[in-house]
Specification:
It is built from 11 helices and 19 strands. The protein has about 375 residues and is α/β, with parallel strands linked by helices. Bound molecules: flavin-adenine dinucleotide. Pathway: Cofactor biosynthesis; thiamine diphosphate biosynthesis.
Length: about 375
């Protein structure tokens, strides 16, 4: 089976990995180079930030994130020599208002990945001695990890380029789908080139709404900007992730610390705003005073594929009144949790396309149930 995937962020790349490993011939097109958009800009926390604030449909996919990346890691590393750098650092959540809800959620979730403990100041200090000593309580999630997403993308791109049944075509903008007799016959790029396959996948992140404009239904994805700053610290300087009031610090294995993030509806704008950067910096210093001695290495902004409920669209395109497309699939709208939901989203899509047994109930993600 030939599958054409539009969009080479984490969702398109992992979909390509799943489908190519299952024997499909896969082509991926991207309007820029692969893995440069939201998937590069994100933080890589392998959990929703406050999981109890999200619908079950988000957590149902997110809970596979860490373990599926761990399962892919040996194959990818052996073939590419690159490490996707999963850092099992654990996460401290410092928002008092969430302590009881978070504890209750972890107790009832029966998910080992989400066990939680409420710590006092001495326990906090032994977990993370860099924490501001004025902080006296914190909710500790020891199993939570982060992944170094730029390394993950580089590894996936390198691996996919090695596969004889994968073709990767960067700098190719898909402008429309050619439709005949209820089927997509080709995608047409900006040069007028027609790209043909048996099945077609929209995995275009924040741009997915634009690609649905020619159809009778609309994908309500819109870009939501998030800004980040990066500190350079010595390796293992910050022992755990830390989060307070939606601002987080994520230590990488080599010592870099990612701090984010903002959420702003600014259209397709990735300009860095110095006021937002300053706010991130000040919050980081309040949480971890020693960061004032660490240089800021970089600042950037990315566009999350925002959807109203945070639940992605995974499955066959919905039927229109005059047209029932039988070979167009969506895997988009992952909003704030695309890196953690990506492995399960990609596998679910592969299972749907190939008619296999599904790993989870698909109902919550089906475009036919949600788009009009
Ligand atoms: C600041 C920030 C922090 C984040 N932190 C986390 C986190 O800690 N954990 C987590 O799980 N998630 C996080 N996210 C969310 C996560 O990054 C996204 O949900 C995820 O990357 C979306 O992946 P994607 O592949 O759908 O989109 P993208 O990575 O944006 O990829 C879409 C691709 O489609 C291409 N494209 C678009 N239109 C076309 C076209 N017409 N033709 C060809 N190609 C096209 C684009 O060029 C792009 O490469 C964060 C996001 C941001 C911005």
């Amino acid at each position: 089976m030939k599958v054409l995937i539009v969009g080479g962020g984490i969702i398109g790349l992992l979909s390509a990995l799943e489908l190519s490993q299952a024997g499909c011939n896969v082509t991926i097109l991207d309007k820029q180079d692969f893995g440069q958009a939201a998937s590069w800009a994100g933080g890589g926390i392998l959990s929703p930030m406050y999981p109890w604030r999200y619908p079950d449909a988000v957590n149902q996919l997110a809970r596979f994130g860490k373990s599926m990346y761990q399962q892919w890691q040996p194959l990818l590393q052996q073939a590419t020599g690159l490490d996707i750098e999963i850092n099992p650092s654990g996460m401290l959540i410092l928002d008092e208002a969430d302590f009881n809800t978070g504890l209750g959620w972890a107790a009832h979730d029966h998910d080992l990945q989400q066990s939680a403990q409420l710590l006092d100041d001495s326990a906090l200090n032994s977990i993370n001695p860099r924490l501001n000593p004025r902080i006296t309580q914190g909710l500790w999630f020891p199993q939570l990890a982060n992944i170094r997403n730029p390394r993950l993308l580089k590894t996936l791109i390198t691996f996919l380029k090695q596969q004889p049944n994968v073709r990767m075509q960067p700098f190719t903008t898909v402008q429309r789908f050619e439709v005949k007799n209820n089927s997509i016959r080709a995608v047409v790029d900006e040069k007028g080139t027609h790209w043909q396959a048996d099945q077609y996948v929209i995995a275009t992140g924040a741009w997915s709404g634009l690609l649905s404009e020619q159809f009778e239904w609309h994908i309500p994805v819109k870009p939501i900007q998030g800004q980040m700053i990066l500190f350079k610290a010595p390796a293992q300087w910050l022992p755990s992730m830390v989060m307070h009031q939606g601002i987080y610090l994520i230590p990488r294995l080599d010592g870099h610390i990612v701090c984010g993030s903002s959420t702003d509806d600014l259209g397709f704008n990735t300009d860095v705003n110095s006021e937002i950067g300053l706010k991130l910096q000040q919050t980081a210093y309040q949480l971890i005073p020693g960061l004032q001695d660490m240089p800021i290495a970089h600042a950037w902004a990315g566009l999350r594929p925002g959807v109203p409920d945070g639940v992605p669209y995974i499955g066959k395109a919905p039927p229109g009144q005059s047209q029932q497309l039988n070979n167009l699939w969506l895997n988009c709208g992952h909003f704030r949790n695309g890196l953690v939901m990506a492995p399960a989203s990609a596998r679910l899509l592969k299972q749907q396309i190939l008619g296999e047994t599904l790993m989870v109930d698909e109902a919550a993600y089906l475009p036919a149930n949600r788009l009009s």
